[in-house]
Amino acid sequence: MTINAPSTGALAGVRVLDISRILGGPYCGQILGDHGADVLKVEPPQGDDTRTWGPPFRDGVASYYHGLNRNKRIQHLDLGTPEGREVLLALVAEADVLIENFKTGTMERWGIGYETLSKRFPRLVWCRVSGFGADGPLGALPGYDAAVQAMTGIMSINGEADGGPLRVGLPVVDMVTGLNAVIGVLLALNERQRSGRGQFVEAALYDSGLSLLHPHAANWFMDGTEPKRTGNAHPNIYPYDALKTRTDPIFVAVGNDRQFASFCACIGQQALSEDPRYATAGQRSVNRDGLKQQLEAALAGFDGRTLVDTLMAAGVPAAPVLPVDAALTHPHTAHRGMVVELEGGYRGIGSPVKLSRTPATYRHAPLTKGDRFLDE
User: Hey, which end of the chain has fewer CB within 10 Å, N or C?
Assistant: First the structure.
C-alpha cells in the first residue's frame, strides 16, 4: 500500500512535539502521526541513537530507526544550550502534546520541566515515557526493555519447561509502553475538551511489563502457585500449543469443548473427545502431557499446511508456524494494508487500527526535514 495523502485522520489538527528517542516514545509519536497528528520530532545534533542500531543500513541510517519514525518531520536541536531551549519553547507554545523520555530530572535541570512549562502552557499534554517513574524504590533509574522483562517476571514464564528464563524475542515492553503512552495522550486530550487544561501523562516500562502478566498474575493471585514455563503451550487451557505433524509444526488453539470435539473429528480421533481425561477443558489442562503424546502420534500422518486448512474450515483455530518473511508477504497481510510503501524505498508495518471514516494515512517517510509545525 503506497499512500502520500494529506492528513484527514482522527487526530488531524493535533500538534505533537516528539523530543523522545529510542523506542517507546518514538513509537507513540509514530502512532499519533499515522492517525493524522502533525508530529515534529526534535533530535540532538547527532540524531536519535537508533540511527546506529544496525545493520541493515540505508544511507547510513539503520532500519531500526526507519521502523519508528514515519509520519514525522525531523529537526536537530541541542537542548543543552540556551539557544536550543529557546527554539524548543517556541515550538512548545504551538504544541498540543509533548512526548519525552529524558532521564528524570534532566529537563528540570534545564529549567523546562513539566512544573515550569505547565504554568506557561496550561493546555499542554505532557507525556513522559520512563523506566520506573520518578520516585519509589526504583524511581528515576534508567529502564531497558530486556532488563524490565527480567524484573517483571516475563522472562521467568517464557521459554521451554526444561530450559531457563528467556527474553521475548521482540521489545514487547517498550512497544506496549508506547501503546500505553498513546492511550494516555488520547485520554488527556479528551478530558481537555471538558476542562480546557492539559495534564501530565506517564507510561513506565515497569508498570507496562507487570500489566502483561495475564493470566499468570491472575493465577498467582488466586492460588499462590508460582507460574512455570510451558513453552508454546498455554498455562490454563489445552491443546493450545504447537504440535508436530508429518511435515511442518502447526499451532492449534482450542478454547472450548466443542472445538476440541471438532479437532478430534478432523484427525480421526473422536474417542479422545469422549475420554473422561480429556472431555472437559479443565481435565485436558491437567492431563496435557498424555494428551499431547496422543495428538502428535495421530498428527504424524498429516501434512501440516493441508491440515490447517481443514481445521480452520471446521471452526478449529489453527495456524502454520511462519517465519517473518512469509508473514510479511502473506496475501492477507497485503489485503489488510499492513505493509506501507512510500517514495524513496521506504517499507514498513501499517497501522493495525482501522477507522471507517478517518483511516490512518502515510504522509512522511522517515528523515523528512521540518523546522516548524504545518499551517492548518
Answer: C
What are the C-alpha distances in Å from 358 to residues 9, 92, 291, 350? 5, 27, 48, 15
Annotation says 174 is catalytic: yes
First to last CA, the chain: 26
What is the CATH class of 250-320?
alpha beta
In which band, very low, low, confident or very high, does the pLDDT at 1 lie, cut at 50, 70 and 90?
Answer: low
CATH node for 15-212+330-349: 3.40.50.10540
Please give the Cα distance from 154 to 218 (Å, whole number).
Answer: 14
* Whether 365 contacts 343, CB under 8 Å: yes
- Alpha carbon distances (Å) from 34 to 37, 87, 290: 7, 25, 48
Task: Out of 174, 275, 289, 325, pick the active-site residue.
Answer: 174
The DSSP string of 219-239 is HHHHH-PPP---TTS-SSSSS
Q: Helices (DSSP H) in the chain: which residue ranges?
A: 24-34, 63-66, 82-92, 106-109, 114-120, 145-151, 172-195, 205-211, 216-223, 257-266, 270-274, 281-286, 288-299, 304-313, 324-328, 331-335
Mean per-residue pLDDT, 65-88: 96
Q: How many CB atoms lie within 10 A of CB 300?
A: 10
Q: Are strands 200-204 and 125-130 parallel, antiparallel or unpaired?
A: parallel
Number of other CB atoms surrounding residue 270 within 10 Å: 11
Structure confidence at residue 184 as a pLDDT band (50, 70, 90): very high
Find residue 341's DSSP bridge partners: 2, 347
Query: In this model, does residue 326 exceed pLDDT 60?
Result: yes
Domain parsing of the chain, residue ranges: 15-212+330-349, 250-320
Specify which residues 15 forms β-bridges with: 38
Percent of the chain with pLDDT over 70: 98
Cβ-Cβ contacts under 8 Å for 310 (sequence gap 6 or more): 266
CA distance 30 to 16: 10
- Judged on CB neighbours under 10 Å (0-12, 13-18, 19+), 141 is middle
Give 7-50 pLDDT, tens digit per residue.
Answer: 689 999 999 999 999 999 999 999 999 999 999 999 999 999 99
Instruction: Give the three cell numbers for residue 236.
Output: 490454563
